[in-house]
Amino acid sequence: MASRRLALNLQTALRSKAAINAVKRSRQSPLTRGLATPVSHGSKTESTTLSNGFTIATEHSPWAQTSTVGVWIDAGSRAETDKTNGTAHFLEHLAFKGTQQRTQQQLELEIENMGGHLNAYTSRENTVYYAKSFNNDVPAAVDILSDILQNSKLEPQAIERERDVILREQEEVDKQLEEVVFDHLHATAFQGQPLGRTILGPKENIESIQRSDLENYIKTNYTADRMVLVGAGGVPHQQLVELAEKYFSKLPAEAPNYSGKIVAEQKQKPEFIGSEVRIRDDTMGSANIAIAVEGVSWNDEDYFTALVTQAIVGNWDRAMGNSNYLGSKLSSFVSQNNLANSFMSFSTSYSDTGLWGIYLVTPYVDRIDDLVHFTLREWSRLSSHVSNAEVERAKAQLKASLLLSLDGTTAVAEDIGRQIITTGRRLAPEEIERVVGAISEKDVMDFAKRKLWDRDVAVSAVGQLDGLLTYDRIRNDMSRMLS
């Protein structure tokens, strides 16, 4: 129920009503399959906006027996202040602890009796509450979602109990080196800015957040203009619109005036800062290093080109049976020269910026210099020497990752929610395939020249780091000429 990091996630961005209304309505394709596995190919996303700005978006599959419905909120940890950092995640924990109409036991019993599933998660720019149920139980699921979003009790006893739960969760997160490295990467790349804060918040905030902080966060961010009710599966669009009218039409259209300053600060484009943070611990058995340049936002015209370029660099893990034979040039070089145990390239997008980079894990601490040097040398190569074969491979992998992941109503609902809340419309799978398919090696090299070549980097490293050279040496490798 805490943060999710997906390198290819289609998450977050402040949307305008005009963009929401631009989503075209279209009728369902006629049902041509009989007794077969439900798929969403050919289904269309429909969208309606209520008078208060609350949006409903659905993909109806008439053959599906279940549905996923959820509310995507355009607010996460980025919508907090230094003092209240951790509030969004705190609220997520309290959502299931009772409302004005239902006790915690009643909530759990209702979901259990319908055989449903209720969950939530928080990210830097989004908060999501969703339920999966049989089609007949969709009205009850929407009722529960609206209740926990609008009528949570936020009882003092529950707040105190959840403090301990979140502090234990923070201790577990601190043991996950990837989470630690990426949190520090955000903190150094976006220093002193909302996007640089963690999702759980610092320990002192978790211990001091009050009921008034939670109430103010709800008033500021849980408004109709920042929320989308999503349905995927057997629920028809019109039914969900009627349920939204019933349960969400009284939501305030926008935040009250006193919150204007916070909202304005959230909308300011963060400044990417070339910098580093190192946490040296020689008792650890490895070095864990993330290096990133400023990436692209969800709406950037380079969004899919960034993903294709990322896929060219690729991912690699020594535990994979075919590790010596992957298409990525970097994976072959790292494997043959025993430079690392694994690496993962990433392109993480936000509403107005992003991070594009790589996460390296190596026990060969005397070869860190070579690992970083040849990784950045590969980045430099992308500006001038990219073959058609590796671009086509990367495009095929990207399309598989984006399109084959739409398996089940929950995955489809998440795809709809992310795209509507971030860009104002949902790209159909066919559109994504067409856009990705049109990317050429020239597009990749042009992207690399503008975004990678001689650009400032943010570095986050934890572990045995004696072999990691100075920031200036790393930065100089961003413009090293190829021999």
Automatic annotation (TrEMBL):
Gene: MAS1
Peptidase M16 N-terminal domain: residues covered: 56-203
Gene Ontology molecular functions: metal ion binding; metalloendopeptidase activity
Documented EC number(s): 3.4.24.64
Region entry Disordered, spans: 24-48
A single BP term in Gene Ontology: protein processing involved in protein targeting to mitochondrion
Annotated protein name in UniProt: mitochondrial processing peptidase
Function: Catalytic subunit of the essential mitochondrial processing protease (MPP), which cleaves the mitochondrial sequence off newly imported precursors proteins. Preferentially, cleaves after an arginine at position P2.
Family: Belongs to the peptidase M16 family.
Keywords: Hydrolase, Metal-binding, Metalloprotease, Mitochondrion, Protease, Transit peptide, Zinc
Catalytic reaction list: Release of N-terminal transit peptides from precursor proteins imported into the mitochondrion, typically with Arg in position P2
Cofactor: Zn(2+)
One GO CC term, this protein: mitochondrial matrix
Main location: mitochondrion
InterPro entries, A to Z: Metalloenz_LuxS/M16, MPP/UQCRC_Complex, Pept_M16_N, Pept_M16_Zn_BS, Peptidase_M16_C
Lineage start: Eukaryota, Fungi, Dikarya, Ascomycota, Pezizomycotina
PANTHER family linked to this entry: GH01077P, METALLOPROTEASE
Compartments where located: Mitochondrion
Peptidase M16 C-terminal domain ranges (all copies): 208-398
